[in-house]
Design goal:
The structure holds two protein chains of two kinds. Chain A is built from no helices and nine strands. By secondary structure, chain A is an all-beta fold. A four-stranded antiparallel sheet of chain A has the order 1-2-5-8, with no helix packed on it. In chain A, strand 3 and strand 4 form a beta hairpin. The radius of gyration of chain A is 13 Å and the shape is globular. Chain A starts with 11 loop residues before the first strand and ends in a 13-residue tail after the last strand. Chain B is α/β, with parallel strands linked by helices. In chain B, 34% of the residues lie in helices and 17% in strands. A seven-stranded parallel sheet of chain B has the order 10-11-9-8-12-13-14, with helices on both faces. Chain B has a four-stranded parallel sheet with strand order 4-3-5-6, with helices on both faces.
Chain lengths: 103, 403
């Protein structure tokens, strides 16, 4: 679970080489352009620090991988650049109820 | 990693041989009906000197009894005033005897035979005043980092907790374990999904399956309750599943071998890293294992934790009765918004201003300062939260649980 080094300008961080999601390191507004390893991404919605976007397409049923470990599976096809959150990922353990259906 | 702080400080030696880093007088209610009188007794004194804890329920509880005994004989506790209404079911003589046996001064006030609220409060305050004087004159004794018991918890977690505060706390834990200290991490319900990687760190072959089954038990328990240990704030902060939250939380444990599994109110016999099993065996009986962060902190303290590292992303403000809580803020925005409540700004890692090693060392150094008497932010602010509820008593499969 080693962290990559991340200079201040970096807005997306992948924790583990096998991850298919990156973490947003600063608040992003919808439409904002960010780059990750040379590839351009456009923020699909306003995204708060700590949220995740897909850096590769994740087909329905495939693992969402962060820290190099599955954190659940996609319950729909997720395109690269999409926000990955309660609406498109399912736990293999306890299902999370969105208390305020706001995320 | 270099330890640039001295490993020695001074604490208070109790008559049972344990050493504390605080010198607290506890005022303890033995049923909720005595809580108000306890508050009246404690109110004139500084929160750092006199703190109120207790067990609210009037029905008997082996767990409540064990927890109160462990807390009232905690090394940070110098003296205990027990306040009973008189008709509750708590076994107050048994608790008083246990505290006496530990060598701590103890007094029992029963409100029904002590003249009611006013007279009980007055005699309670008089006893507390006399004990503060006695405790303030106790000589201090040298204490080494290897004698420390440190717990860790995360609360109000968000997407930053698992990449800054928790791994930094894990590095501090590695330094403490290397120094011979006892470190305890917990909330098996927040380690769901990590059981197999965690089991690989077990110190013995017998412990490996016990770690896996402890987490599986937590998953079953929370599943039966209908909710995982996951809050709305976790989701707002970018966490999507219990596995994701767990992996972030797991980083707090560092990378040392896991020496054993503890139950609440149980002390480790040697230094090393321990997992606290907070989930009762069997089907749910009294509700959620720990209803909030404070209930978890109190269980860590019941295992002897002198201080607790609390990593927060969304911004928790709690401290605790009995033991200081060191607040590590994982999220730089939260730190800016709530600086007075925080001790360490781990969010600097995200801004590129500090490395994980820097923050790990800062946490370790801060703990030694706290052990030497420096107050934490939550102590400065007078936080002395306490929660103790009903629970089934700890698990009974002894051999592989504590080494």
């Amino acid at each position: 679970m080693a962290n990559e080094s991340h200079p201040q300008t970096k807005k997306l961080m992948r924790i583990h080489l096998e991850d298919n999601v990156a973490i947003v390191l600063t608040n992003l507004t919808k439409g904002e352009r960010v780059e990750f390893e040379g590839a351009p991404f456009v923020a699909p919605c306003d995204l708060g620090l700590g949220h995740k976007i897909a850096i590769r397409a994740i087909p329905s049923g495939a693992d969402v991988v962060k820290y190099g470990v599955p954190i659940g599976y996609a319950n729909t096809d997720i395109s690269a650049g999409n926000h990955v959150h309660l609406h498109n990922i399912c736990s293999r353990y306890t299902v999370i109820e969105d208390m305020e259906a706001s995320a | 990693m270099t330890h640039n702080k001295t490993q020695q400080f001074s604490g208070w030696l109790r008559k049972d041989g344990r050493k504390g880093i605080r010198n607290v007088v506890i005022v303890a209610y033995l049923v909720e009906c005595a809580h108000h009188v306890c508050k009246k007794i404690a109110r004139p004194f500084d929160e750092r000197d006199v703190q109120v804890i207790g067990f609210s329920g009037c029905f008997p509880s082996d767990y409540g009894q064990d927890m109160m005994e462990a807390l009232c004989t905690h090394p940070n506790v110098g003296a205990v005033l027990l306040v009973s209404l008189g008709c509750e079911n708590f076994k107050k003589q048994q608790l008083q005897t246990a505290i006496e046996a530990s060598g701590r001064p103890v007094e029992l006030i029963t409100i029904q035979s002590g003249g009611g609220s006013l007279q009980s409060a007055e005699s309670g305050r008089n006893w507390v005043s006399s004990q503060i004087k006695v405790l303030s004159e106790l000589p201090k004794t040298p204490m080494d980092v290897s004698e420390l018991v440190i717990g860790t918890i995360c609360g109000g977690s968000d997407g930053t907790s698992g990449i800054t505060g928790n791994p930094a706390a894990g590095l501090a834990f590695d330094m403490l374990v290397d120094s011979g200290a006892t470190c305890i991490f917990e909330e098996t319900g927040e380690l769901i999904g990590c059981e197999h990687i965690m089991a690989e760190r077990a110190i013995s072959d017998e412990l490996r399956p016990a770690i896996v089954s402890t987490v599986e038990k937590a998953a079953r328990y929370y599943s039966a309750m209908g909710y995982g240990s996951f809050s709305n704030g976790n989701a707002l902060g970018g966490l999507s599943t219990i596995e994701e939250k767990s992996l972030g939380a797991y980083a707090k444990s560092g990378s040392s071998p896991i020496s054993g599994i503890l139950a609440p109110a149980q002390q480790a016999k040697t230094g090393g890293l321990y997992l606290l099993d907070v989930v009762p065996d069997g089907p749910p009986k009294f509700g959620f294992p720990n209803i909030n962060d404070t209930a978890e902190i109190i269980e860590l303290i019941s295992c002897g934790a002198h201080a607790v590292i609390f990593v927060t992303g969304r911004g928790s403000v709690v401290g605790s009765a009995i033991s200081p809580v060191l607040k590590v803020c994982a999220n730089p925005e939260t730190y800016d918004a709530m600086q007075d409540d925080m001790d360490v700004n781990a969010g600097r890692i995200l801004n590129g201003e500090a490395s994980l090693d820097d923050i790990g060392t800062e946490i370790y150094d801060s703990l030694l300062d706290i052990a030497g008497g420096t107050p934490t932010s939550s102590e400065e602010l007078g936080h002395t939260e306490f929660v103790l509820t009903y629970k089934t008593n700890g698990p009974a499969e002894p051999e592989c649980r504590v080494s």
